[in-house]
Amino acid sequence: MGVKKVYLTWDDINVLLDKLHEQVKDEVSMVTGLPRGGTILAILYSHRFDVEYFDGTSNHYPHLMILDDIADTGQTFKKVYDCCPVPIYASIHYKKQSIFKPNYYVEEVGPEWIVYPWEKEDAKTIQDYLDN
Fold this sequence. Notes:
Rossmann fold; alpha/beta; two-stranded parallel sheet
């Protein structure tokens, strides 16, 4: 039997972003995201909470949050942190085996495969490939 998949809706994402915002709202004045899922979340977060979207044109970012959808292996977060140690890293989901623990996350998840609304077609394509 394969890995259990958990499919999220856009409504789920809005609820998760609301929960994240409750944790970080007093610390964050700018947001950016890690490609690809984090970029989508950062833009949604920026619009939903009227927080400036960081476009890389400032060299002063004490309240910048770098956002991603999941800290799975943690490799992406670690690479970014090693070159840009900003104070706030966040993700919607966090897995214990990640080598990088974000300052903030909404939910700790197990081995299940989280399928975000912007990935649904990608997930199907990948699974079809793996099944053949």
